[in-house]
Design the sequence.
């Protein structure tokens, strides 16, 4: 872990004025504007679920210095702090958040050959599109994933055979414990399936910038690892296609599952996959297999993928469906998506408690049917599953 320059304690707690780039990502508007600070501020509009109560205080930071200053201020005063990026992985309680919510809206996309640096507030899906337009490979199958760039190393975001951990070289973060800006090499981030050092210790680091090393394959994608993607493209796993074609195919597959944001489609009022795919020890998998054969018949083989150290990963979506929770399940304002069993959705009038009641019902049903306990992927704030 490398230390880099940081604000000193003599720096002001919060910048009152600062340059704010245009939201479109075009030429910067250098007009000085006040840093946005709101009180009793609604948080639901900042999440893809569109759920949750207000924050006592909401600050929107558009520079790394503003982010650090806001964090320092909260830490110095002992004020609870909630970091919000794209809001695509948050379940906020109906009572809201009694403290300071810090929305990171920093911008910065810098491409130098195959080296990419993203500010934490950059829209991830837009950044993927720009790398594909530049003819680079490595994150094209992560297209359409909602949220911000700063969240990607925290969750080790992955889909369709790619994970950001395979391309991240460094993460620049503010270390709240040491009160300094640090640079962590990819190997120091302790990446694993939907997990990282940042997720393990959520109160310590605030991600500021993420650096990637992509591949120049002459406009081709990385070798396709995910069978569904390869089938959709009519090629074998391990082959390459045009990176733009791979991205477009992934977007089409995601849209068919309600995993591309659309304000008119309530199937996308979700956090995407609500549960992670269970990873089972050899003993747990044997027990699960026995329960599967008892429930569904001896010829049924559940999805199974090697997960290292003798463990096996199975499909949460398969478990949910086979436990009796089909697409569209539910009669209330929170239901399973009509397009994908792994997504729990707000049909427009739901509360967070409605959503959690559905999630608990699914968890209990899967546990009763197969002896496997599902774990939620989104971060919960002020509530527990």
Sequence:
């Amino acid at each position: 872990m490398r230390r880099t320059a940081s604000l000193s304690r003599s720096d002001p707690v919060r910048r009152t004025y600062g340059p704010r780039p245009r939201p479109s990502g075009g030429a910067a508007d250098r007009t000085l504007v006040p840093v946005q600070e709101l009180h009793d501020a609604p948080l639901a509009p900042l999440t893809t679920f569109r759920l949750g109560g207000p924050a006592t205080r909401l600050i929107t930071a558009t520079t790394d210095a503003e982010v650090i200053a806001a964090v320092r201020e909260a830490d110095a005063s002992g004020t609870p702090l909630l970091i919000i990026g794209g809001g695509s992985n948050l379940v906020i309680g109906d009572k809201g958040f009694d403290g300071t919510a810090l929305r990171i809206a920093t911008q910065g996309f810098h491409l130098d050959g195959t080296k990419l640096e993203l500010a934490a507030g950059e829209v991830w899906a837009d950044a993927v599109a720009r790398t594909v337009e530049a003819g680079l490979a490595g994150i094209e199958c992560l297209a359409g994933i909602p949220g911000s760039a700063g969240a990607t190393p925290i969750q080790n975001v992955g889909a369709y055979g790619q994970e950001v951990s395979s391309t991240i070289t460094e993460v620049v973060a503010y270390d709240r414990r040491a009160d300094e800006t640090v640079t962590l090499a990819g190997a120091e981030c302790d990446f694993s399936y939907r997990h990282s050092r940042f997720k393990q210790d959520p109160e310590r680091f605030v991600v500021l910038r993420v650096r990637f090393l992509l591949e120049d394959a002459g406009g081709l994608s990385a070798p396709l690892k995910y069978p569904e993607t390869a089938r959709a493209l009519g090629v074998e796993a391990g082959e390459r296609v045009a990176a733009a074609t791979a991205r477009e195919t992934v977007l089409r597959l995601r849209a068919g599952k309600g995993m591309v944001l659309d304000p008119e489609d309530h199937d996308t009022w979700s956090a995407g996959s609500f549960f992670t795919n269970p990873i089972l020890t050899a003993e747990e998998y044997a027990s699960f297999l026995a329960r599967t054969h008892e429930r569904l018949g001896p010829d049924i083989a559940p999805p199974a993928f090697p997960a290292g150290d003798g463990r096996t990963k199975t499909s949460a979506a398969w478990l949910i469906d086979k436990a009796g929770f089909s697409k569209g399940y539910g009669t209330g304002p929170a239901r399973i998506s009509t397009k994908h069993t792994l997504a729990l959705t707000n049909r427009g009038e739901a509360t967070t408690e409605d959503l959690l009641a559905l999630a608990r019902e699914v968890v209990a049903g899967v546990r009763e049917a197969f002896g496997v306990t599902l774990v939620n992927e989104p971060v919960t704030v002020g509530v527990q599953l």
The radius of gyration is 21 Å. The CA atoms of residues 275 and 375 lie 5 Å apart. The mean pLDDT is 92. DSSP finds nine helices and 23 strands in the chain.
